[in-house]
Amino acid sequence: MKYTQRTPKKFLNEAKITSEDKLFMFLLRLRRGYPVVDLAHIFGISKPYCVRVLYVMLRYLHITLKELSKHLFISAKALEFKKPKPFKPFKNLKIIIDGFELNLEFPSNFQQQGNTYSEYKAHNTVRFIIGISPHGTIVFVTPGYEGNMSERKALEESGFFDMLKPGDVVMCDRGFEINNELLRRGVEVLKPPSLGGRKKFTPEEEILTRAIASARIYVEHAVRLVKVNRLLRFTVPVSMIPTISDYAYVAGFLANFGTKTFQSKKKKNGEWK
Q1: 145: β partners
Q2: How many CB atoms lie within 10 A of CB 8?
Q3: 98-115 burial string, b = 16+ CB within 10 Å, else e?
Q4: How much is the pTM?
Q5: pLDDT tens profile 199-212
Q6: Residue-range domain boundaries for the chain
Q7: Angle formed at CA 270 by CA 268 and CA 273, multiple of 5 degrees
Q8: Which of 21, 150, 221, 264 is 20 to 30 Å from the Cα of 158, by its Cα?
Q9: Residue 23 burial by Cβ neighbours in a 10 Å radius (0-12, 13-18, 19+)
């Protein structure tokens, strides 16, 4: 008997995926953490093609937002215009920085196991540092670094120090040991006061501590905006190491298009202030 049937060609609807669908697919991956196989099924495409689309969208968004970030990192003088109330006590404040870590799957490479181990988290991690302007905009996100790297080294590797100018003020947590590096550049460091063996703060130090705490709430909120994405919320697989920096960067800058950090208050006469 002669075999006449042909093996059917695999049906792919790849050409009909619009740019909007590709962006939507990427956002589902980042925000909701959908597995690639599920996204391929939802959009009616093959898994390899889905992987390529996600990677292209990731690189495109990273390059686009990287270019946009140049216009967000503006001078301290320009930031004085309509500065929100929590930041008004701090003149020439350029940026508020804070660090965060994402848990990383236990690497099989022995050297990588040690380099990514964070004593603070007692886990293998990827370390990032994020920065916001006094208006609450996320203006800086470092690449991902190994978990045992210090904040100072991560900032140095990212080129952060070169972005600052003499007279700028940087607000950070007490754990950031960057005083010497910034003072050499004429940049002031603003940290919560330390007791240094004393029993209590002076009244002036207590006021400063409260003021800094009120301001630093907003950079902690920025960290939450990045971690709220399900793709970054749980343990990151080792296979994502080559792209995790881009994902965190895109997540941070996309957060600027969401809910305003500082809401305008309405006056009694109906005007906005």
Answers
A1: 127
A2: 6
A3: bbbbbbbeebeeeebeee
A4: 0.87
A5: 888 889 899 999 99
A6: 16-73, 74-256
A7: 85
A8: 221
A9: middle
d(CA 234, CA 78): 38
CATH 1.10.10 matches 16-73: yes
The type of residue at 6 is R
Comparing CA positions, the residue from 243, 259, 219 lying closest to residue 93 is 219
Residues facing 124 on adjacent strands: 117
Asked whether the beta carbons of 246 and 58 are under 8 A apart, the reply is: yes
Mean pLDDT on 41-55: 94
**What are the residues whose beta carbons fall under 8 Å from the beta carbon of 169, sequence distance 6 or more?**
76, 90, 91, 92, 93, 94, 187, 188, 189, 190
Tokens matching residue 227: 């971690």
Residues 83-141 have pLDDT tens digits of: 999 999 999 999 999 999 999 999 999 999 999 999 989 999 999 999 999 999 999 99
Instruction: Enter the tokens of residue 94.
Output: 């350029």
Which helix (H) or strand (E) segment holds residue 71: the answer is: none
Contacts of 155 (CB under 8 A, 6+ apart): 97, 129, 142, 161, 178, 181
Residue range 74-256 forms a domain whose CATH class is alpha beta
C-alpha–C-alpha distance, residues 58 and 229, integer Å: 15
Both tokens of residue 167? 């007279």
